[in-house]
Amino acid sequence: MNLFDMLNSHQLSQPSNTVMELVHLNEKTKERDLVLTPDDAKTLMLSRNKILRDHARVELSIGVLKELIEVFSASPYMNRDHYVDTLNDLQEIFYYLRNETEDKIGDAKLIQQMNDYYNGPCGGSIELLRSKMEELAEKFRGDITLHHSLFEGYE
Known about the structure:
Elements: H1 3-8, H2 10-13, H3 15-24, H4 26-29, H5 38-54, H6 63-72, H7 83-100, H8 107-119, H9 126-151
Helix pairs in contact: 3-5, 5-7, 6-8, 7-8, 7-9
């Protein structure tokens, strides 16, 4: 087991606390008929750990996943049949963006941007959201490169 696996599996070593934290969010989401079972919560945690490993990231809390659940559960496009799959896709897109924007955009702002696109021009399509977020990352990298070239030599 490498360092990433050890650190990211920390939450699964205490499954009752982490799983219960996610299941407790049902109090906020059940009015929209979006409910996580303990097995769903475990699936989300396993997916999260794989995504973190794939993106070479370490997260000690599940704050991002909880925020994704809270923000996106209010979406008119979120439905019970695809709830867990959509949350897994959103985690993947989020951590892709974090890497591509070099962590220069805060978690809440990034999640809100994703939510705005998801509920707006993407019409609830994960594929369109992924495409729009790739465009956003490309524009962000272009702006950073331009900024560095404009101020090169002034530092």
